[in-house]
Design goal:
By secondary structure, the protein is an alpha+beta fold. The protein has helices at residues 5-16, 64-77, 82-96, 106-109, 122-141, and strands at 29-35, 40-48, 54-61. β1 and β2 (40-48) form a beta hairpin. The relative contact order is 0.21.
Length: 156
Amino acid sequence: MELSSLYQDIILDHYRNPIGRGRLLEPLGSAFHVNPTCGDEITVDVARDADGALVVGHEGQGCSISQASASVMTELVQGQDVIQVESTRQAFLALMHSQGLGEPDEVVLGDGVAFAGVAKYPARVKCALLPWMALQDALIKGQIVVPATDTQPASE
Ligand code: ZN
């Protein structure tokens, strides 16, 4: 795998000094996800602070990409509100599905732009997306979801 050395440095830095590592004491939602093709495992916990902003904790093991992705994700979404979290998540998903052709927005994605090169390697995309999938699951379990804007009753 050839990544630019700058991007590689960013990923390794997050791998070595992960942001938000450790479980939350009282999560509203938690999710454990595995990436069987690589052997990565991650648990993501979510909670909200007094202002409703997101608090994230994670713990896991696996390759540098999966663990660095959890760190970058935490750095990005920690403190965001539900709507911001969803738009950040969509931006990262779009980057990872760009097959390396996307032009990531550094304002939105911060260190997440370092994963632009990873998007060229389908097997590695799963590693990078793993914590984001777990985040989504944890948010749903914690009922931290974007409120519906239509007037239809939530019958399902
Ligand atoms: Zn992996």
